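The protein record filed here.
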Amino acid sequence: MNDHILVERADGIATVTINRPKMRNAVSLAMWTAIGQETQALAKDDSVRAVVFRGAGTDAFASGADISEFKENRKDTETALHYNRQTEAAYRAIRNCPKPTVAMIFGYCMGGAMALAMACDLRFAAEGSKFGIPAARLSIIYGLDPVHQLVDLVGPAYAKDILYSARTVEADEALRIGLIQRLVPAAQLEAHTFDYLGKVASNAPLSIRGTKTQVRAIFEGITDQHRADLAELGLETYNSQDYKEGTTAFLEKRAPRFQGR
C-alpha cells in the first residue's frame, strides 16, 4: 500500500484516505496508481458494502494533482500519455466499482480531485468547501469522461462556465447546481456520511448493484449488451438467498439480514 493512500474497513464500509495533509492532499502519480489498485481490490472484497473517499484532515479533500511533478511526469507526449492512463484508470475504477461510493469533502476539492469526486456516486460536503477545475490556467484540456460527468451533474452551461472561467465554486452554489448532494456543517459531516452509508449497507447488495448498473447504462447510452447484462443480473437476484430472506423478513415483520448472495 502507498503510505499516502490509506484504506480502513469497519462495519462493511471501507474508507480510502488521500493522506498528504501538508500538501493539501495533492495527488502524485504514484498515488493515482494506488487509488486505482486499491479501489479494484475493494470492488472484489465481499465484506465491503460501500466505499468512502476522503482527504486527511479537514483543510482539503485534495488540492488536485501534484503539479510539481509535471516537469518530469508530464514533460512530453510519452510521459503525458502514461500519466493520463494512470489518472483515467483511477477514475474508471471508482466509476465501475459495484459498491456505492461517496466522496466526503472537507475544504478544497480542485482539479483532478474534482474528477475523482465526480467519479463517485455521491458527493457529501462540509460547509465552506470549495470546488474548481483550473485546467484553463494550465493550458490543459480536462479529460472527456470527467467533463461528461460534470455536464451530467450540472448541465452544459454551468460546465462551460466552470471550465471556461477556472473559477472557484463555493459550497452553496455547488449544492444549488447539483455538483454535490449534501451540504452539512463540518462537525457533522463524518457522522452524516457514515450514518447514511450504514443504512445503505444494510440493504440488499444485489439490488444496489443492479441500480448502479442501470444508472451507468443510462449514462453511457443503453445498448443490447446493457439489457442482456441487466436481465442476467435480475435473474441472479430472483434466485438469490437474499431475495428469499427479504420476502421472509417482510412477512415476519423483522429487519432482513442480507448476505449479498
Remarks:
- The mean pLDDT is 92.
- The domain at 5-201 is CATH 3.90.226.10 (2-enoyl-CoA Hydratase; Chain A, domain 1).
- The first strand starts at residue 5 and ends at 10.
